[in-house]
Amino acid sequence: MVAIRALNAYYGEQQVLKEVSLDIEENQVLGIMGPSGCGKTTLIRILNRMNDDLPGFRRTGTVTIQGQDIYSREVDPVMLKTRVGMVFQAPNPFPISIYDNVAFGPRIHKLFRKKKELNLIVRDSLEKAGLWEEVKERLDKNALRLSGGQQQRLCIARALAVRPQILLMDEPASALDPGSTSKVEELIVDLRQNYTVVVVTHNMQQAARVANSVVFLYKGEVVEIGKAPDIFENPTNPQTEKYIRGTLI
């Protein structure tokens, strides 16, 4: 579904991605791992053009989704963000009701005609995010009253409400307690039945639990990519092996 070819990215004179090429399969979870500063977040932000307006940012190479170059003039960056959703490291619900958080995107993009349809979108999104049973009696309450883990799942529901094909997650559980982390990981595994999911994580155990495939980035380059069990049990590149063992400098 997603094909990245010869991708280079720069912030001013600093090059942060170097000739990155990889394919992201449909209805799979791709884990992106590597040390801090290796270009993981830059890579996923390129997939829905979140870096476009950053001062000094530029890129070369191509990124296609279902054969369409997402940086072509025919692609509306705003509409692209409905196809490629994003969940950030820290939960960032809007300071409005739980219902209105989920309904926000469908209202902007006019994805319904009747209130009944919007109600169904909200419920379906919260169910997919594993949150409906916990909040169905208090949809009118401020989302900021939710726990951190619930807020993160609400943000996932908000992203799902605009019916994306791809969901990008940048360290989605790093700010959560172990119990909430477990729920988010279970959710990621469930989501791959209907979505393509790309997860940035520093947690190798987490990548092993949720990802079908893993790409290891180091200093902006793809060092190794493969099925998760192969990468963790039998890496072919010495740098990957050092990173997994915690000895990479």
Structural class comes to: alpha/beta
* Quaternary status: single chain
Rg from alpha-carbon coordinates:
18 Å
Instruction: Please tally the helical runs, counting DSSP H or I stretches of 4 or more residues.
Output: 10
The helix/strand order is EEEHEEHEHHHHEHEHEEHH
Inertia-based shape: globular
Q: Unreliable segments (pLDDT under 50, ≥5 consecutive)? A: none
Largest sheet: 6 strands, mixed
Strand content: 25-35%
Pick out its properties:
249 residues; alpha/beta; six-stranded mixed beta sheet; four-stranded antiparallel beta sheet; 10 helices; globular
Give an overview in words.
By secondary structure, this protein is of the alpha/beta class. The protein is 37% helix and 26% strand. The chain is built from 10 helices and 10 strands. The protein has a 6-stranded mixed β-sheet with strand order 6-7-8-3-9-10, sandwiched between helices. The chain has a 4-stranded antiparallel β-sheet with strand order 2-1-4-5, with helices on one face. The chain is globular, with a radius of gyration of 18 Å. The chain starts with a strand and ends with a helix. The mean pLDDT is 95.
